[in-house]
Every structure is written in structure tokens, then in C-alpha cells.
Amino acid sequence: MAIITQPYFTYENGEPNERKIYVDTRLVKQDIIRSGINGWTTTMRRIFTPHDPKTTKQTAVRAVMVFCRNQTSKTKYDDNVSRWMSLNAPTITWPGSTAPSTIALSDVTATASNKAIFVTFTPSNAENLSGVVILRDPAEIVTPDPLQAIIFYPTKTAASINYLDSPLRPGTYHYRAAAFELDGKLGPFSPDVSATVT
Fold first, then answer.
1. Same domain flag for 115 and 23
2. What angle, 0 to 180 degrees and rounded to 10, lies between the N-to-C axes of helices 77-85 and 56-69?
3. Is the pLDDT of residue 50 over 90?
């Protein structure tokens, strides 16, 4: 007898759902593989995988890729990750720019809530605005580090935005944020703000 195990992905609304993965295990006769009740049996067991990355590097890299996934099909994942590791924002136009952006953020605040922190910011203008990158660290962020990124928040308006960082363990969290443009120009980082989750 031979045991064959293969992943089985469920679908909702036509899209793969990574949180619902099963394994199809079949017990198959080695000499004659037949379909039917006498040839094999099928059992299903659920595989639980963590939904969130466990390291700061995984968080930063995944943040870039999640942002790029929602952009045009021409977006290059690896190149955008490399751009960000050099502290250049992701771009959807190639090769992109390394020049600074003039879009600044104002009214940046951090407010603690139940196991979460609201990070609020307002871009100075929306011309060529692509999004806002938010950095987080348990210590004061003196020098922005690419590995501190938790999200590239897509926005094209100059309206005030509240980002909910959740769930969080008890402790103090520091944030800085910067706007970036469609061609990858990165604006100045906001001053450090912090809040404490109890």
C-alpha cells in the first residue's frame, strides 16, 4: 500500500482562501491504482497555518508585496522589495525615481484602544500620491529602517486617514510615517509618535 498526500485548496467567490487549506490523503494499492471504494479511501484533515508573519523582516517584505499585489499587473514584486530595502518607495512606473517627494504628512498621532492603536495622518496634497508607509518599533524611531515597515497604506486623497494597527500585545509602540508617489518618490518621515497598549 502507498499513502499519497496532496494539498487541497478551497475557494470562496472564485478566489483561493489561504486560511482554509486541507490535505487529501489517499491510501492507494501499489500494484493497481483504481478509483472507487475498493481502490482507495479519502480522508480530510485541516491544516492550520499562521496568518501573520513572525519576524520584522517578513512583515516589511510582505507589506511591500501586499501593496504591489493591488496595483497594475506590471508591478514587479522583487524589484519593489529591493527598492524598499534601499529605503525607496515601491513604484508602478519603471524604473521609478529615487528623488524625494514634497508630499508631507501632518497631524500624525497615535491613540491607544483595546489591544490596538489608531495611527492618524493627513497628506499635504494628493498630486501623484500613491500611499503612505507606516513604520512601527517598540523603541523610539530615530532613524527610519526599512524593516520597521508594517504597511504601505494605499491612498490617493489628501483626507485625514485613521489606520488601525491591531491586534497588539501590551506595551508601548512608536510610529513614523511618510507619503510616497506613483513613481516611487518618498516624502519626509513624520516625527515619532507613540501610544501604550495596556
1. no
2. 130
3. no
